Amino acid sequence: WEAPGADEDREGKPFVGVSGKLLDRMIESIQLDRSTSYITNILPWRPPGNRKPSAAEVTSCLPFVCQHIALVAPKVLVLVGGISASALLNTDHGITRLRGRWRNYCTKDGGIPAIPIFHPAYLLRQPNLKRETWKDLRAIRQKLKETINS
Q1: pLDDT for 21-70, tens place per residue?
Q2: Which terminus, N or C, of the chain has the lesser number of Cβ atoms within 10 Å?
Q3: Which whole-number Å values give the CA distances from 22 to 47, 54, 119, 125, 130, in the listed order?
Q4: Residues 83-134: pLDDT tens digits?
Q5: Is 103 helix (H, G, I), strand (E, B) or coil?
Q6: What phi, psi does 113 have (nearest 5°)?
Q7: What does 117-145 look like in DSSP terms, one character per residue?
Q8: Which of 103, 49, 108 is nearest to 77 (CA)?
Q9: What confidence score (pLDDT) does residue 1 get?
Q10: In 3D, which of 7, 143, 148, 130 has the Cα closest to residue 78?
């Protein structure tokens, strides 16, 4: 549900469980790692019963996430999963419709190229979608090359 799972809740770090290991392999496939990437969650806690975060919870945490983004000032923003994508892009579209297309995450200084991708936990349940995610990862690598060279 795109909030911390049991492993993340225990360790207090994002993406450390099984889906985190897949995320690590995903970012390594485009020559990145956790030392060159900033990873955070929309919600910093696991909702009771591991339920989907409520709209009120997402709304209450969004200013903090936006401040993280402003402080880190990434060249590219990768929105992992539907909740982060819909919250940060201010849309009600689902991840299947959003993924794979670049958008602009608006900031006071202009914007950051943003691309939604499937959440690793979803990919573990739907491995047939890994091919689409590989396309997204290659697009991320290309966009990073473009931003570095410009």
Answers
A1: 999 999 999 999 999 999 999 988 888 888 889 999 999 999 999 999 99
A2: C
A3: 22, 26, 10, 12, 11
A4: 999 999 999 999 999 999 999 999 888 899 999 999 999 999 999 999 999 9
A5: strand
A6: -60, 130
A7: E--HHHHHH-GGGHHHHHHHHHHHHHHHH
A8: 103
A9: 46
A10: 143
Q: Which long-range contacts (CB under 8 A, 24 or more apart) does 42-46 make?
A: 42/2, 42/3, 42/83, 42/84, 42/87, 43/3, 43/4, 44/4, 45/3, 45/4, 45/9, 46/3, 46/4, 46/5, 46/6, 46/8, 46/9
Q: Is 116 helix (H, G, I), strand (E, B) or coil?
A: strand
Pair of tokens at residue 101: 């297309």
Report the alpha-carbon distance of residue 57 to residue 28 in Å, rounded.
31
